[in-house]
Amino acid sequence: MSEPISAPTDRSGPAGPAGWLTLPDVAERLEVNVTRVHRMIREGQLIAVPRDGVRRVPTELVANHTVLKHLPGILTLLRDAGYDDEEIVGWLYQPDETLPGTPAAALGGDRAREVKRRAQALGF
């Protein structure tokens, strides 16, 4: 279900995040309390998945004391397309040489609109 619209030639599997942050670590980076981080996850502004029994957030999604600008919209689009949180993380970190890199990496740069377009197309 998590195939992108365009089919890149290298589909060797998800690369995965460079690292993971615990929710207290996210709170520290965003300079908010951990309760606010829990609310952000509940409201779909941020995503956390269990790793080693602890909910964690991919490091790249939290930058410069903020969540990546387009992330909440991408999360909404993918959830509307029927993706669960594990599938969303898999989609965000699926290597795609047409971006280049991964959708997560592209969200932090000038390819964010393309990532959003691809996520929108998954709902149809």
From TrEMBL:
The residues covered by the Rv2175c C-terminal domain are 69-123
Key words of the record: DNA-binding
Boundaries of every DNA-binding protein Rv2175c wHTH domain copy: 20-61
Region annotated Disordered sits at: 1-20
Give one GO term, molecular function aspect: DNA binding
Specify the protein name.
Rv2175c family DNA-binding protein
Can you name the source organism?
Plantactinospora siamensis
